[in-house]
Amino acid sequence: MPATSPISRCDPQAVIIRHGSDPHALVQILRELQAELGWLPREALTRVATALGLTLAEVEGVAGFYRFLHLRPVGRYRVLFSDNITDRMLGSEALLQALCRQLGVVPGAIVGDDPLVSVDRCSCTGLCDQGPALLVNHHQVVTRLDATRVAQMAELIRTRVPVPAWPAEWSLVEDRIERADVLLASPPAQGAALAAAIARGPQGLLVEIERSGLRGRGGAGFGTGRKWALCRKAAGTGRVVVCNADEGEPGTFKDRVLLSRHADAVFEGMTLAAFAIGARTGFVYLRGEYRFLLEQLEAVLQQRRAAGLLGSSICGVAGFDFDIVIHLGAGAYVCGEESSLLESLEGKRGNPRVRPPYPTESGYLGQPTIVNNVETFCAVTAITLRGAAWWAAIGTAQSSGTRIHSVSGDCARPGLYEYPFGTSIRRILEDCGAADTQAVQVGGPSGVCVAVNEFDRSIAFEDVPSAGAFMVFDRQRDMFEVARSFTHFFAHESCGFCTPCRVGTALLVRRMDKLAAGHGSPHDLDALFEIDRLLRGSSHCGLGATAGNPLRETFNRFRPAYERRLRSLHLIPGFDLDAEVSIARQVTGRDDPAAHLEQQG
Predict the structure, then answer these.
(1) In angstroms, rounded to a whole number, what is the distance separating the alpha carbons of residues 569 and 601?
(2) What pLDDT digit, counting tens, does each position of 486-510 carry?
(3) CATH number at residue 240
(4) Where in the sequence is the domain holding 55, given as residue range(s)?
(5) CA distance 92 to 329
(6) DSSP string for 173-185
(7) What are 529-567's pLDDT values in tens digits?
């Protein structure tokens, strides 16, 4: 082996044995091997394949899918700048270029067989409230970047100072809870909700969750009690509980804080779900960017086992056996979709499954499985302790309880804000100190863009639904550039499984980049909306179906930002774009004037 493959210093077999030689643990095995080797040489992958009874092609296929796994050498210092729009608004791109100049490297380039450093961009790191931020070697975060910190980092890398020896304050992650309500306030006593559930019995607990009206906090809003009931009734002997902690939606960081501050409530909620449906196995799918939380979470799990709240005969109840394993993701946004997540849990590429069957019928390893997110499990714990009527009295008739918002962008006080459903967008903007706001992106890039005349709308499933992100943009921001950034994000994160998404997201980027360069024409608008239509109608999963949302949302509300890019229109004598758009809407019955403008242009 060449000097760049330190396989001789690591025994893959030891890692494999540590995971019980289980092929379903392949992603975890590869992550741990890479942590020791720096990358994944073919010799190491061959040994893994042989030990697990897999082909080399299968193992390489999995390793090649995840962005935090590398099939060729990368820098011994692997620096990844968060490329979310809020980080860019805080100057992340200029800081990235400064670090590259000082180290003599090019972003995204790797030179030599054993490079000292590589610098690149990654999607949102979940640190939007304290950016600009970056990851080093996929596990150590650096927050609140500025020119001074970047210059010091360059020197530490040049002198080969180990990352753990870097200044500790650089990796300080604050839990900025700016407004706490029933979930973010003082956590419940450990085990109290379990005692209440045992007194009710499994069926009684199910009824309580259904009566509360709790809907999943992951974005789709499916009734939690109904999901659990379907899983309990499904055929099969095993049951599985999965916590989706892969909050990869740009602008979202609420799960990070809940896991840091209220891990007990999350794990208790999972255990309550297991009691209700009869599960013995639980997983937390923790996004790879939150690797820094792993040891802390493992310690909480061990405390619960010692207290009799996990393991065999929980709380002394014979037959109530349940435990939780943490599975660490490896950098794939698509794994936030529940079926992709289950594929990853099984040690595969995170390609979305064809549904039906749904996970409640056939999930992890074909067993009936419930998948809920971190905030949902916290809510379950609160409801079990305080009752369905209490929860149902909060919020609105169709959206019971509270919602936690990750607020970032152009505001004085970024952080977490918890409100009852039905709270207006204007109220949140006032509380976070936003001024001269022109738009709010609710729910991340796949969500809703809200303009000034809509700020009295409320956060609720029946009005403005939210997956938790609340990004604020003042009037100095170019909303076309915001949409373009989101379009690049979707293209970057497409898993490539289906052609419409793989090709369509790339085509959206090309057209948006053409507009940004000032070479746009009505034909490009026409093409953009046609690509969006095809993506929505033919993509395999929600990533492709929502990739055109930023285009439609911003075009409908901030059309002048697009018109400025249509330079060819100004060359047409007497051309009145407003009049043409009005005619187009009458003729086509659509909001986008592209087809009509193409005829005129």
Answers:
(1) 8
(2) 999 999 999 888 899 999 999 999 9
(3) 3.40.50.11540
(4) 6-65
(5) 25
(6) ----EEE--TTTS
(7) 999 999 999 999 888 899 999 999 999 999 999 988 886
